[in-house]
């Protein structure tokens, strides 16, 4: 008797990809750019989101989806900036998926919103495998994590549209090799944009905001919406 082999991972990913495409269409209708922010725990995702909101408001309207295994700490922090936010608790899950994102979208009005920021669960592995409906993937690597990470966790760096090297203010205290890191990243993903930033000193944030504003503008153009940012 022949042995049946069922590839579960593919079917899960297939269903997820379908739902992610549905989420993306929903955002496309209103010309809302969605970014999926991914990194290890503590690399600075929430810090980046706060800096971004403060630099974009009030002209650019931002909504946020926060993903964490537990707690609403990040959502509360973001909410203090006066921004609509939904917290997803994955109850043990190490990444967000498209169904969770769909539920979060159902709980946001998205009315007049220009940018949807999704903070994924802190993890350098699984988030890269699951599309959520985002238009761009933003990857943060903080300098204390070490410059060898692209070799150890290649998918995240291969999938990213932009890689932000955060905590560059700590470079004098570490042996993070920026040149070696950039070489490893571009070896995996030749077209990726790499920006050095510090959410503490604000170094490099202008470059990040200018990249993001351009993406928002392009999104509106593609979908025939007015540009107010
Ligand atoms: N020195 C320094 N510290 C930073 C910088 N960015 C963030 N931090 C600090 O790093 C710690 C973690 O930052 P968060 O923004 O909470 O990181 P996160 O990626 O959202 O963390 P999780 O949501 O728990 O995965 C906080 O103590 C921040 O103040 C930076 O550029 N330089
Ligand atoms: Mg966070």
Summarize the structure.
The chain has 229 residues and is an alpha/beta fold. It has helices at 8-29, 45-56, 73-79, 98-106, 149-152, 154-159, 178-188, 205-222, and strands at 33-38, 62-68, 85-89, 115-119, 136-142, 162-166, 193-196.
How would you portray this structure in words?
- This protein is of the alpha/beta class.
- It has 8 helices and 7 strands, in the order H-E-H-E-H-E-H-E-E-H-H-E-H-E-H.
- Strands 3-2-4-1-5-6-7 form a 7-stranded parallel sheet, with helices on both faces.
- Helix 7 links the parallel strand 6 and strand 7.
- Helix 1 runs parallel beside helix 4.
- The longest helix has 22 residues.
- The mean pLDDT is 94.
- Bound molecules: guanosine-5'-triphosphate (GTP) and magnesium ion.
- The site of magnesium ion has 4 residues, from helix 2.
Throw out a few tags for this protein:
binds magnesium ion; binds guanosine-5'-triphosphate; 229 residues; 7-stranded parallel beta sheet
* Assembly category: single chain
- Helix percent band: 25-40%
Order of helices and strands: HEHEHEHEEHHEHEH
Ligand kinds: guanosine-5'-triphosphate, magnesium ion
């Amino acid at each position: 008797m022949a042995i049946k082999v069922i590839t579960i991972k593919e079917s899960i990913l297939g269903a997820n990809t379908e739902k992610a495409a549905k989420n993306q269409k929903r955002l496309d209708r209103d010309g809302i750019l969605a970014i999926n922010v991914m990194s290890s725990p503590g690399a600075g995702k929430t810090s980046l989101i706060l800096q971004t909101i403060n630099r974009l408001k009030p002209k650019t309207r931002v909504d946020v989806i926060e993903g964490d295994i537990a707690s609403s700490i990040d959502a509360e922090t973001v909410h203090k900036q006066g921004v609509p936010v939904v917290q997803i608790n994955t109850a043990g899950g190490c990444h967000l998926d498209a169904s969770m994102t769909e539920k979060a979208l159902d709980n946001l009005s998205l009315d007049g919103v220009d940018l949807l920021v999704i903070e994924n669960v802190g993890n350098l592995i699984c988030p890269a495998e699951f599309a959520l409906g985002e238009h761009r993937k933003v990857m943060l690597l903080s300098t204390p994590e070490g410059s060898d990470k692209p070799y150890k966790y290649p998918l995240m760096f291969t999938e990213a549209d932009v890689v932000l090297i955060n905590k560059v203010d700590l470079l004098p205290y570490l042996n993070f090799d920026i040149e070696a890191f950039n070489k490893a990243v571009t070896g995996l993903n030749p077209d990726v944009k790499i920006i050095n930033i510090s959410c503490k000193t604000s170094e490099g944030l202008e470059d990040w905001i200018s990249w993001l504003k351009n993406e928002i503008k392009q999104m509106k153009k593609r979908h025939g919406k007015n540009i107010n940012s």
